[in-house]
Design brief:
Structural class: mainly alpha
Shape: elongated
Radius of gyration: 20 Å
Distance between the termini: 61 Å
Number of helices: 10
Largest sheet: none
Helix content: over 70%
Number of strands: 0
Order of helices and strands: HHHHHHHHHH
Mean pLDDT: 88
Length: 218
Protein backbone atom coordinates (compact mmCIF):
# COMPACT_ATOMS: atom_id res chain seq x y z
CA UNK A 1 0.00 0.00 0.00
CA UNK A 2 1.21 3.48 -0.78
CA UNK A 3 2.17 5.66 2.20
CA UNK A 4 -0.43 8.35 3.00
CA UNK A 5 1.52 11.22 1.47
CA UNK A 6 2.13 9.49 -1.88
CA UNK A 7 -1.31 8.00 -2.56
CA UNK A 8 -2.21 8.38 -6.26
CA UNK A 9 -5.66 9.78 -5.36
CA UNK A 10 -6.25 12.92 -3.25
CA UNK A 11 -6.98 12.06 0.37
CA UNK A 12 -9.73 14.34 1.76
CA UNK A 13 -8.36 14.13 5.30
CA UNK A 14 -4.89 15.11 4.19
CA UNK A 15 -6.33 17.96 2.13
CA UNK A 16 -8.30 19.24 5.13
CA UNK A 17 -5.18 19.09 7.27
CA UNK A 18 -3.19 21.13 4.76
CA UNK A 19 -5.94 23.75 4.54
CA UNK A 20 -6.35 23.94 8.30
CA UNK A 21 -2.60 24.14 8.79
CA UNK A 22 -2.38 27.04 6.34
CA UNK A 23 -5.05 28.92 8.30
CA UNK A 24 -3.54 28.24 11.72
CA UNK A 25 0.08 28.88 10.72
CA UNK A 26 -0.94 32.14 8.97
CA UNK A 27 -2.84 33.29 12.07
CA UNK A 28 -0.37 32.23 14.76
CA UNK A 29 2.97 31.52 13.12
CA UNK A 30 4.85 28.23 13.33
CA UNK A 31 5.94 28.47 16.96
CA UNK A 32 2.56 29.39 18.47
CA UNK A 33 0.49 27.03 16.33
CA UNK A 34 -0.11 23.61 17.84
CA UNK A 35 -0.93 20.25 16.31
CA UNK A 36 -4.05 20.22 18.49
CA UNK A 37 -5.17 23.55 16.96
CA UNK A 38 -4.65 22.26 13.43
CA UNK A 39 -6.44 18.96 13.98
CA UNK A 40 -9.36 20.69 15.68
CA UNK A 41 -9.66 23.13 12.77
CA UNK A 42 -9.58 20.21 10.30
CA UNK A 43 -11.99 18.18 12.47
CA UNK A 44 -9.70 15.14 12.45
CA UNK A 45 -8.11 12.87 15.01
CA UNK A 46 -5.21 14.43 16.95
CA UNK A 47 -2.86 11.73 15.62
CA UNK A 48 -3.54 12.65 12.00
CA UNK A 49 -0.61 15.06 11.60
CA UNK A 50 1.82 12.37 12.66
CA UNK A 51 0.15 9.80 10.40
CA UNK A 52 0.13 11.95 7.25
CA UNK A 53 3.16 14.18 7.73
CA UNK A 54 5.25 12.58 10.51
CA UNK A 55 5.76 15.91 12.33
CA UNK A 56 4.58 19.48 12.73
CA UNK A 57 7.81 20.65 11.08
CA UNK A 58 7.23 18.50 7.99
CA UNK A 59 3.63 19.70 7.73
CA UNK A 60 4.77 23.31 7.96
CA UNK A 61 7.41 22.83 5.26
CA UNK A 62 4.81 21.38 2.91
CA UNK A 63 2.32 24.17 3.62
CA UNK A 64 4.97 26.85 3.06
CA UNK A 65 6.15 25.29 -0.20
CA UNK A 66 2.55 24.99 -1.39
CA UNK A 67 1.93 28.66 -0.56
CA UNK A 68 4.81 29.78 -2.77
CA UNK A 69 3.84 27.34 -5.50
CA UNK A 70 0.20 28.44 -5.64
CA UNK A 71 0.99 32.16 -5.70
CA UNK A 72 3.48 31.56 -8.52
CA UNK A 73 0.88 29.56 -10.47
CA UNK A 74 -1.65 32.36 -10.12
CA UNK A 75 0.84 35.09 -11.00
CA UNK A 76 3.41 33.40 -13.28
CA UNK A 77 6.54 35.27 -14.35
CA UNK A 78 6.08 34.19 -17.97
CA UNK A 79 6.62 37.61 -19.53
CA UNK A 80 9.33 38.59 -17.04
CA UNK A 81 11.25 35.47 -18.09
CA UNK A 82 10.88 36.13 -21.82
CA UNK A 83 14.34 37.29 -22.88
CA UNK A 84 13.00 38.33 -26.29
CA UNK A 85 11.12 41.21 -24.66
CA UNK A 86 12.73 44.57 -23.80
CA UNK A 87 14.03 44.72 -20.21
CA UNK A 88 11.66 47.60 -19.44
CA UNK A 89 8.66 45.38 -20.23
CA UNK A 90 10.10 42.51 -18.24
CA UNK A 91 10.76 44.71 -15.21
CA UNK A 92 7.22 46.11 -15.28
CA UNK A 93 5.82 42.58 -15.43
CA UNK A 94 8.05 41.39 -12.58
CA UNK A 95 6.96 44.27 -10.35
CA UNK A 96 3.28 43.98 -11.27
CA UNK A 97 3.24 40.26 -10.43
CA UNK A 98 5.16 40.70 -7.21
CA UNK A 99 2.88 43.48 -5.96
CA UNK A 100 -0.22 41.52 -6.98
CA UNK A 101 1.01 38.52 -4.97
CA UNK A 102 1.67 40.70 -1.94
CA UNK A 103 -1.74 42.39 -2.00
CA UNK A 104 -3.97 39.53 -3.10
CA UNK A 105 -7.19 39.64 -1.05
CA UNK A 106 -8.54 36.23 -2.08
CA UNK A 107 -7.69 33.05 -0.18
CA UNK A 108 -4.12 33.63 -1.38
CA UNK A 109 -3.97 36.45 1.13
CA UNK A 110 -3.36 33.82 3.78
CA UNK A 111 -0.39 32.62 1.75
CA UNK A 112 1.07 36.12 1.83
CA UNK A 113 0.48 36.39 5.56
CA UNK A 114 2.14 33.02 6.14
CA UNK A 115 5.15 33.96 4.02
CA UNK A 116 5.48 37.33 5.79
CA UNK A 117 5.46 35.57 9.16
CA UNK A 118 8.12 33.14 8.00
CA UNK A 119 10.40 35.93 6.82
CA UNK A 120 9.93 37.88 10.06
CA UNK A 121 10.41 34.83 12.29
CA UNK A 122 12.26 32.25 10.17
CA UNK A 123 12.32 28.52 10.70
CA UNK A 124 14.50 25.86 9.09
CA UNK A 125 11.95 25.69 6.26
CA UNK A 126 13.02 29.11 5.00
CA UNK A 127 16.33 27.78 3.67
CA UNK A 128 14.51 25.34 1.41
CA UNK A 129 12.18 28.09 0.14
CA UNK A 130 15.14 30.37 -0.55
CA UNK A 131 16.81 27.72 -2.69
CA UNK A 132 13.70 26.63 -4.58
CA UNK A 133 11.90 29.94 -5.03
CA UNK A 134 13.62 33.10 -3.83
CA UNK A 135 17.04 32.64 -5.42
CA UNK A 136 15.62 31.95 -8.90
CA UNK A 137 13.43 35.06 -8.67
CA UNK A 138 16.33 37.16 -7.42
CA UNK A 139 18.42 35.91 -10.33
CA UNK A 140 15.60 36.79 -12.72
CA UNK A 141 15.34 40.33 -11.37
CA UNK A 142 19.09 40.87 -11.39
CA UNK A 143 19.29 39.65 -14.98
CA UNK A 144 16.71 42.24 -16.00
CA UNK A 145 18.53 44.97 -14.07
CA UNK A 146 21.82 44.00 -15.70
CA UNK A 147 20.29 44.63 -19.12
CA UNK A 148 19.17 48.08 -18.02
CA UNK A 149 22.38 49.29 -16.34
CA UNK A 150 24.90 47.56 -18.56
CA UNK A 151 28.21 45.91 -17.59
CA UNK A 152 30.57 46.99 -14.85
CA UNK A 153 28.24 46.83 -11.85
CA UNK A 154 29.56 44.67 -9.01
CA UNK A 155 27.59 41.72 -7.70
CA UNK A 156 27.17 43.51 -4.37
CA UNK A 157 25.70 46.58 -6.04
CA UNK A 158 23.44 44.39 -8.15
CA UNK A 159 22.01 43.02 -4.90
CA UNK A 160 21.48 46.58 -3.66
CA UNK A 161 19.66 47.53 -6.83
CA UNK A 162 17.43 44.46 -6.71
CA UNK A 163 16.60 44.96 -3.04
CA UNK A 164 15.77 48.61 -3.67
CA UNK A 165 13.09 47.53 -6.16
CA UNK A 166 11.80 44.69 -3.98
CA UNK A 167 11.72 47.00 -0.97
CA UNK A 168 9.39 49.42 -2.73
CA UNK A 169 6.92 46.59 -3.28
CA UNK A 170 7.23 45.17 0.23
CA UNK A 171 6.38 48.58 1.67
CA UNK A 172 2.80 48.12 0.49
CA UNK A 173 2.53 44.79 2.29
CA UNK A 174 4.34 45.44 5.55
CA UNK A 175 2.93 48.96 5.99
CA UNK A 176 -0.59 48.07 4.88
CA UNK A 177 -2.12 49.30 8.14
CA UNK A 178 -0.58 52.75 7.59
CA UNK A 179 -1.50 52.93 3.91
CA UNK A 180 -5.10 51.95 4.70
CA UNK A 181 -5.28 54.97 7.03
CA UNK A 182 -3.29 57.48 4.98
CA UNK A 183 -4.04 56.82 1.31
CA UNK A 184 -6.07 53.61 0.87
CA UNK A 185 -7.13 54.61 -2.65
CA UNK A 186 -3.70 53.78 -4.12
CA UNK A 187 -4.24 50.04 -3.59
CA UNK A 188 -8.02 49.95 -3.26
CA UNK A 189 -8.72 47.96 -6.44
CA UNK A 190 -6.81 45.73 -8.85
CA UNK A 191 -6.69 48.65 -11.26
CA UNK A 192 -5.15 50.95 -8.64
CA UNK A 193 -2.65 48.24 -7.68
CA UNK A 194 -1.62 48.07 -11.35
CA UNK A 195 -1.13 51.85 -11.37
CA UNK A 196 1.00 51.60 -8.23
CA UNK A 197 3.07 48.84 -9.83
CA UNK A 198 3.54 51.01 -12.92
CA UNK A 199 4.70 53.87 -10.68
CA UNK A 200 7.27 51.64 -8.99
CA UNK A 201 8.48 50.46 -12.39
CA UNK A 202 8.82 54.00 -13.78
CA UNK A 203 10.49 55.24 -10.61
CA UNK A 204 12.97 52.35 -10.66
CA UNK A 205 13.75 52.59 -14.35
CA UNK A 206 14.37 56.33 -14.09
CA UNK A 207 17.12 55.57 -11.58
CA UNK A 208 18.52 52.55 -13.43
CA UNK A 209 18.81 54.43 -16.72
CA UNK A 210 21.04 57.00 -15.06
CA UNK A 211 23.39 54.41 -13.69
CA UNK A 212 26.49 53.71 -15.71
CA UNK A 213 29.36 51.39 -14.81
CA UNK A 214 30.87 52.44 -11.52
CA UNK A 215 27.99 54.70 -10.44
CA UNK A 216 25.88 52.12 -8.63
CA UNK A 217 27.97 52.15 -5.49
CA UNK A 218 28.01 54.68 -2.66
Amino acid sequence: MNPPNTHPFPDPTRKRLLQAALDVFAEKGFHDATVRDICARADVNAASVNYYFRSKEALYSEVLAAAFRETHERYPDTLACDSSLPPEVRLRQFIANFLARLLDETHLGRHGKLIAREIADPTAALDQVIESTMKPRCALLQGIIAELVGPGVSETDMHRLGLSIVGQCLMYRHSRSLIDRLCPEIIATPEEIEKTAEHIARFSMAALRHLSAGEAGP
